[in-house]
Amino acid sequence: MSSEIAKQAEARRTFAIISHPDAGKTTLTEKLLLLGGAIRMAGQVKAKGENRRAHSDWMKIEQARGISVTTSVMTFEYEGATFNLLDTPGHEDFSEDTYRTLTAVDSAIMVIDAAKGIEAQTRKLFEVCRLRDIPIITFVNKMDREGREVFEILDEVAEALALDTVPMVWPVGGGGTFKGCYDLVREEMIPFTGEDSYGTPVKAELLGDELPNLIPGDLYDTLLEEADLAMDAYPDFDLESYREGHLTPVYFGSALKSFGVKQLLDAVLQFAPAPKAQPAEPREVEPSDSKVSGFVFKVQANMDPKHRDRIAFMRICSGKFKRGMKLHQIGTGKSMSIHNPIMFFAQNRELAEEAWPGDIIGIPNHGTLRVGDSMTEGENIRFSGIPSFAPEILQRVRLDDPLKAKHLSKALESLAEEGVTQVFRPVIGASYIVGVVGQLQLEVLLSRIEQEYGINVGFESAPFVTARWVTSDDAAAMKHFLDRNKGSLADDRDGCPVYMARNHWDMGRIQEDNPKLNFTATRER
Ligand code: GDP
């Protein structure tokens, strides 16, 4: 059995695409799904989004802002392997959600715009990948438009991200003169015709006759010259170094024209790691372990307005999951039989009869499952590394109708479970304080409290600018601190103490004055 599990795990690639808004993530996703046969016609990723929007009220914000705020998982097959693509919300205010999604992938594709290079959001997301040593394949997009010099882009990636870059293909021309890419490894030319096409490679030795049609003379000379320089300037591709997160292979193309997308997906198939051992307490979990285990990295409500329950997204880390199986939620002692696990294909959700390490299943539930939960067949294993982040905006929740206090508490608790917000209960005072990473998250929160729970609330500024979780090995020092700072303390939804600072100076002073305490900006569940 475990050899079958290992074989299935080996055939899986679970990955995400990281990019700055507008670099072309949606377009690339669509072309990958097309290539995997998961959708038939271009335009369906967006069309589906619009359809969803039309049915769902809270996504009005999404519509008004023209952004995508939901995370989804899409599964497709290609060349005998199963690909699980985890979509990450592109807007910077949703970084917390995005960061958590990155805990559930084994590798990432980084898309950059050939004209813009590394942008703010790419850099932030890259840092998260680096924290977890997630290997990255780079795709330089929009080669059909005027962009920067190829050397300049490669050097920027190398410098900005402190990463070895290895061009796997070399673009010929760019913008209006873009003629395709020369595959430096396979030694073949992939001509770009301007049509929407994955491109048909032509072996270098056959280029003789075709050459004048494919590459005009001057561009050919430039290619020879640049390819020569590139061979000297950049290291050879090294699989181990890529998998350790030190090196990124770089591909060039045009997602809009599907060009280069096949080379990219082939690279994911060939180089990207299959699911590997996951860090957990008290022991690492190997995918080939015979018992099923997994962790919840996202909870989402209201995906289908007709069904009001929520879906917990669980990454399977080991074993063969079968529908109907009973799993234990570590920490609460609860167990649940998973009768309706869902797998997500581009156009529909289907019941998952079985799932393997690396797969993501959606578990419908009524709020039992929370982000960070570990699930096993019984063994007490906790997956580590799913963080909460210190909020950058703290606001007091003002309730218009005091009779609805209990109702509000439930609403906030639910939304916190989904990771829409963090909720803090001040030690002194009655009103809740919500913490978010960005302004837009606050708008989503307000709109959902009103529309889904029918409660009118407002937010008013809390006198705090930031929060830190407080821990200590020294119980006496901890108690002393908690007793003396009640006015600035709150409990998070797990009852862990949080210090809320009025300004950054105060935060610094408190840390200096209490050397026996740890103040952390993230907390792992
Ligand atoms: P996202 O915000 O990263 O998901 O970006 P989109 O996929 O929505 O693309 C942003 C814009 O860039 C859209 O207008 C796309 O049509 C356009 N775009 C995406 N890829 C390419 C490309 O390869 N070439 C050109 N010229 N435009 C592109």
From TrEMBL:
GO cellular component: cytosol
Subcellular location: Cytoplasm
Domain Tr-type G, residue spans: 10-276
Cross-referenced CDD domains: RF3_III
Keywords linked to the UniProt accession: Cytoplasm, GTP-binding, Nucleotide-binding, Protein biosynthesis
GO biological process, any: regulation of translational termination
Entry GO MF terms: GTP binding; GTPase activity; guanosine tetraphosphate binding; translation release factor activity, codon nonspecific; translation release factor activity, codon specific
Keyword Methyltransferase recorded: no
NCBIfam families per UniProt: prfC, PRK00741.1, small_GTP
Protein name: Peptide chain release factor 3
Organism taxonomic ancestry: Bacteria, Pseudomonadati, Pseudomonadota, Alphaproteobacteria, Rhodospirillales
The gene coding this protein: prfC
